[in-house]
Design a protein that fits this description.
The protein has helices at about 90-100, 130-155, 155-165, 165-195, 195-210, 215, 220-235, 235-250, 255-285, 285-305, 315-330, 340, 345-350, 355-360, 365-380, 385-390, 400-405, 410-420, 425-435, 450, 455-465, 475-500, 505-525, 525-550, 555-565; strands spanning about 35-40, 45-50, 55-60, 65, 100-105, 110-115, 335. It is mainly α and about 575 residues long. The chain folds into two domains: about 1-70 and about 85-115, no CATH class; about 125-310 and about 355-565, MFS general substrate transporter like domains (Growth Hormone, Chain: A), CATH 1.20.1250. The strands form two sheets. It has a four-stranded antiparallel β-sheet with strand order 1-2-3-4, with no helix packed on it. It has a three-stranded mixed β-sheet with strand order 5-6-7. A hairpin with a 2-residue loop joins strand 3 and strand 4. Helix 8 packs antiparallel against helix 9. The protein is globular, with a radius of gyration of 28 Å.
Length: about 575
């Protein structure tokens, strides 16, 4: 005979996407199974005692039954919890083993479960070394895909010579890679929210690695261009997923420093790639570099398999629900969100269109995407200056070794690390402002960019007017480092603001932001060299400095008016005191 179906206390989900009940639940209802009366206790305010289906004691006052807000034995609500007696022992043994508890019964008779606050499988309960290690690994993968982009651009002349094509056709390989970077997150991000982070990392990284082989032994230029696009599409997983991984592991208030690690990887990835690959191609050649990448990326597939755990809460809870069904024989126990995902239409009508919906309808998303794209546009265009200012000809410093010339890109790395080391100032301001407001404020993430954004035009002006050959080479490098410092802070504000505002769906929102960034990145290299040739090094950099001034008022707008803008964004209007 099957065990009796439990009737349970429901807790409204609110904004607790990790299956953790609120400390003060908004409402609760009682299941619809008949109760039996018990003797009236010695309390004038209690008219009777009712017994629920688990023989739990429910006092009834003149205003109705006293229903407790949660069955989570670890929820600290200040009230005594329902005591469950005479129920299915297998069920409650399984609940205890999986660190979950039953919340309520839906209209179809299914019982939903959440994890307890002490659940060791909840990424937010992992020790700090593990949480930061996961974020660092995801960020390192971000650097590797940037390395792949730079590896092509530093040796593109060898590809042009091999196939006898123009520089425009050769450069198209970089643009197509960045186009894949742009379109990939719009698919990869919702897939990671539906199927989980790890499986998406494994599949996409396998494709990313396999398509390195045709690049090492290409029969024609068409093969190179097609493989570059596919690699960019598959390699976009770290760009799309790292923000979601940060939210999985840290939530909102404590995720600032973790996003700082992700920001640092986004800032230093391209210049590190240019510096490393410049030396490599100078000494061993472009196609040998592609073979090296094949081994490097293949090794990291096993690193992902062994060291990158699943962090997506819905996937973890689904696995727990599967374990409960197997242990108890009850087929109507599900994790929250699991029932929606069982519908075939959910993936295509909801998950896959979410990044496009965010980008087209969410003010926070499309404003962030525009700012992010504009800032990266300045980076993509200013990258053209390094070989002109420090290399041979073009009134530069006439350094003959291309590997040494590419080392100058490390000025951005210096600026990025200076920004990262100043992150504690931003974190202190964020917690101070949030404490004053009484809730975590996404607008407080823009505090450091209020002053750091000024380093963008300042740095470019310094680089512009010190880029003459008779001025010591360190002077323009200082300018580029200043630009890198300001760039770190404005990108960090964007990424932190998106993660804070969209939380559970941060990956989809970031997919839209990355889409705009890389569309610009795919287009700008096609005319950057012509701009510098026509204007000259000094005036081209000066033009970029003037253009970057348009970014100066943006942090002030979002810092002081961001809450109003956020209120117009349906997916984040329910957060933070609204």
């Amino acid at each position: 005979m099957s065990p009796p179906s439990p009737s349970l206390t429901a807790v409204e989900d609110g904004n607790t996407h990790h299956g953790l009940a609120d400390l003060e639940p908004k409402s609760s209802i009682t299941g619809g199974v008949p109760r039996t009366k018990s003797p009236i206790p010695d309390d004038p305010n209690i008219s009777s005692i009712e017994r629920g289906p688990f023989n739990e004691k429910l006092p009834v006052t003149t205003t109705g039954p006293v229903v407790e807000p949660s069955l989570d034995p670890e929820a600290k609500t200040g009230k005594s919890h329902i005591q469950l007696e005479h129920t299915n022992p297998d069920l409650f043994h399984a609940l205890e083993k999986e660190h979950v508890y039953l919340t309520h019964q839906d209209e179809e008779g299914n019982y939903l479960v959440r994890s307890t606050r002490s659940d060791a499988q909840n990424p937010r309960n992992w020790p700090n070394w593990k949480r930061y290690g996961v974020v660092a690994l995801a960020s390192w993968l971000n650097i590797l895909v940037c390395l792949c982009a730079s590896g092509y651009s530093t040796g593109v002349s060898e590809i042009e010579d091999k196939f006898g094509v123009s520089s425009e056709v050769g450069t198209l390989g970089l643009s197509l890679y960045l186009l894949g970077f742009a379109t990939g997150p719009m698919t990869v991000a919702p897939l990671s929210e539906f199927f989980g982070r790890k499986i998406v990392y494994l599949v996409s990284w396998a494709v990313f690695t396999i398509f390195q082989i045709p690049l090492a032994i290409p029969p024609n230029i068409a093969t190179v261009l097609v493989c570059r696009y596919i690699q960019g599409f598959a390699g976009s997983a770290p760009l799309a997923n790292t923000g979601g991984v940060v939210h999985d592991c840290f939530g909102i208030a404590e995720g600032g420093f973790a996003v700082g690690i992700y920001t640092l990887s986004s800032v230093i990835g391209p210049p590190v790639g240019n510096a490393v690959c410049g030396f490599f191609t100078q000494n061993v050649g472009e196609f040998n570099l592609f073979w090296f990448f094949l081994g490097l990326f293949g090794f990291h597939w096993f690193v992902i398999l062994l060291l990158l755990p699943e962090t997506r809460d819905t996937i973890i809870m689904t696995r727990k629900a599967n374990a409960l069904r197997k242990a108890t024989g009850l087929e109507n126990i599900y994790a929250e969100h699991e029932l929606d995902k069982k519908k075939p239409s959910y993936l295509w009508k909801t998950a896959m269109v979410r990044p496009f919906v965010f980008l087209m309808t969410e003010p926070i998303t499309y404003l962030s995407a525009g700012i992010n794209g504009f800032a990266y546009g300045m980076i993509f265009l200013s990258n053209e200056a390094f070989p002109l200012v420090f290399g041979e000809g073009n009134d530069g410093h006439n350094w003959s070794h291309s590997g040494v010339v590419n080392l100058t890109f490390l000025a951005y790395v210096v600026g990025g690390f200076l920004g990262f080391f100043s992150q504690p100032l931003q974190e202190h301001a964020y917690h101070r402002i949030s404490a004053r407001l009484g809730y975590p404020s996404p607008e407080a993430r823009w505090w450091s960019s209020l002053w750091a954004t000024f380093f963008l035009p300042i740095g470019l002006f310094i680089a512009a007017w010190t880029s003459y050959s008779y001025i010591p080479f360190i002077a323009p490098l200082i300018g580029f480092a200043c630009f890198g410092f300001g760039f770190y802070h404005i990108i960090g504000a964007i990424l932190n603001g998106i993660v804070d505002s969209y939380g559970h769906y941060a990956a989809s929102a970031l997919g839209g932001v990355v889409f705009v960034r890389n569309i610009i990145g795919a287009a700008f290299p096609l005319f950057a060299s012509q701009m510098f040739k026509k204007l000259g090094n000094q005036w081209a950099l000066c033009l970029l400095a003037f253009l970057s001034c348009f970014l100066l008022p943006i942090p002030f707008l979002l810092y002081y008016k961001g809450k109003t803008i956020r209120a117009k964004s349906p997916y984040c209007a329910t957060h933070f005191g609204h």
